[in-house]
Design a protein that fits this description.
The chain is mainly alpha-helical and 107 residues long. The protein is built from four helices and two strands; from the N terminus they run βααααβ. The chain binds zinc ion.
């Protein structure tokens, strides 16, 4: 059984955070407080389009400029990927969280 880790609490009146959040009415002020972290679905299409633009630029003869555009697109794509991975990790953490219904501590 899960109990609250708060030293002066130790209550067993604990709920899984996603379940608790879903059970809250939409007008509850706690709905925003316990909401899952945003993000995750990053769009790679824009960064991919930049890479393609770079390839087209290379093909048209402006090799230096085209390579620079390709590198910029690739770096941007890598940045989006890292951001998305971080958002996914935060969401996983949220899914595994509990909330104490006695002292409202999240753990
Ligand atoms: Zn507690």
């Amino acid at each position: 059984m899960v109990v609250c880790p708060q030293a002066d609490c130790g209550s067993s009146n604990v709920a899984a955070l996603p379940h608790y959040w879903e059970s809250l009415p939409a007008e509850s002020p706690l709905k925003a407080k316990y909401a899952p972290p945003a993000g995750g679905a990053a769009s790679y299409w824009a960064s991919l389009a930049v890479v393609v633009l770079g390839i087209v630029t290379v093909a048209s003869g402006a090799v230096g400029l085209g390579l620079a555009v390709m590198v910029a697109g690739a770096v941007w794509g890598a940045f989006l990927f890292r951001k998305s991975a971080k958002a996914t990790a935060l969401l996983d953490q949220w899914r595994g969280s509990h909330v104490c219904l006695a002292c409202t501590r999240r753990f």
